[in-house]
Design a protein that fits this description.
The protein is of the alpha/beta class. It is built from eleven helices and 13 strands. It starts with 7 loop residues before the first strand and ends in a 7-residue tail after the last strand. The structure holds oxa(dethia)-CoA (UT7). The site of oxa(dethia)-CoA (UT7) has 20 residues, from helix 2, helix 6 and helix 8.
């Protein structure tokens, strides 16, 4: 791989969660499940759901404001807006264009990027390449989901998992030796049927039948996705480290996709990472697909778990199947 012309890194972060809290106790009253089963099998205690009158772009706006402030940039400085989501406000126009308008980011190109739970990392790598090449100075990348809108609250196998939220990163040039050191993206479309939304696209457009058969909701083969997630996230993390010329021991904080505590623990074991070097917030947020990694990273930074010079390893896996990993040397936010 060619060395980037300019290093690029995260200059500002922000996050926003759905305002309504859904606890395991609430779910006990909705489907045949128990708080004990959900805690033991997933590690999730509660998740945040979006209000009925809000949409994914509202979450992005809520996360973008602090991220821009932290980076010390104005909306008019943005050259590009990328929103990773599987739950856009509308099939089209893109959620990124809605955000562009509402922010007043008049100079920005804007597009959505669909790589499910890996969407934020795919977006981060695209942003890095535009900054590294000199084509853009400032790129806003969001991972944002209103998963409650496509969750079947009659299906106990999936409805206990998902939450709504958004995380935003502002990507700009970094100092030499800082920012994104290496990345790795991959996919395996053969596994597409393991986790998908059957209806609402061109294969099976919305109709009375698709609605009656509940085909607009997420379908998942949980145990197969679980196995693949453990294997692929471990492999992807190691590949990004190899590309960065770093060892597992060099990582100060692992920020994995927050799908299931047992998956996170298995990946951490494979990387030999002790608990205190692994960011976990799925107990409070559930699985927020593309929003999980940026929200967890933002929280880790706000809690002081990431300091200047620390090596941070981001890794995600999701529908597609897709995966991605990014190694960063943290510079700190706020540089202009
Ligand atoms: O973000 C993208 C990636 N997504 C993931 O990584 C999710 C990966 N998968 C998982 O996290 C887990 O597979 C689940 C949490 C979804 C399920 O856990 P599991 O240990 O794999 O359970 P299972 O699907 O093998 O089901 C075991 C049993 C079944 O009962 P029987 O058939 O053995 O009688 C299920 O019906 O647990 C039952 N079950 C539940 N019981 C109580 C499934 N969901 C529930 C529930 N409450 N909510």
């Amino acid at each position: 791989m060619m060395a980037p012309l300019r290093p690029a890194g995260i200059a500002g972060l922000g996050s926003c969660l759905g305002e309504r809290v859904l606890t395991n106790g609430d779910l006990e009253r909705m489907v045949d499940t128990t708080d004990e089963w959900i805690r033991e099998r997933t590690g999730i205690l509660r998740r945040h759901l979006l209000a009925p009158d809000k949409a994914t772009s509202d979450l992005v706006l809520g996360a973008a404001t602090p991220a821009l402030e932290q980076a010390g940039v104005e909306p008019g400085d943005l050259d590009m807006i990328i929103v990773g989501t599987v739950t856009p406000d509308h099939p089209f126009p893109s959620t990124a264009c809605l955000v562009q308008d509402r922010l007043g980011a008049r100079r920005a190109a804007a597009f959505d990027l669909q790589a499910a739970c890996s969407g934020f990392l795919y977006g981060l790598v695209v942003a890095e390449r535009f900054v590294a090449s000199g084509s853009c100075r400032t790129v806003l990348v969001a991972g944002a989901e209103a998963l409650s809108r496509i969750t079947d609250y009659q299906d106990r196998k999936t409805c206990v998992l998902f939450g709504d939220g958004a995380g935003v990163a502002v990507v700009r040039e970094a100092s030499p030796g800082y920012g994104i050191l290496a990345s790795y993206l991959g996919s395996d479309g053969a596994g597409g049927g393991l986790l998908y939304q059957p209806a609402g696209g061109s294969r099976l457009p919305a109709s009375e039948t698709t609605v009656a058969e509940r085909l607009h909701y997420v379908r998942m083969n949980g145990s197969e996705v679980f196995k693949q997630a453990v294997r692929v996230m471990g492999d992807a993390a190691l590949e990004a480290l190899r590309r960065a010329g770093l060892r597992k021991e060099d990582v100060d904080l692992l920020v994995p996709h927050q799908a299931n505590l047992r998956i996170v623990e298995a990946v951490a074991r494979r990387l030999g990472m002790p608990e205190d070097r692994v960011m976990v917030n799925l107990d409070e947020c559930g699985n927020m697909s593309s929003a999980s990694v940026p929200v967890a990273l933002d929280q880790a930074v706000r809690e002081g778990r990431v300091g200047r010079g620390d090596v941070v390893l981001l890794v995600a896996f999701g529908a597609g199947l897709t995966w991605g990993s990014v190694v960063l040397r943290w510079e700190g936010t706020g540089r202009a």
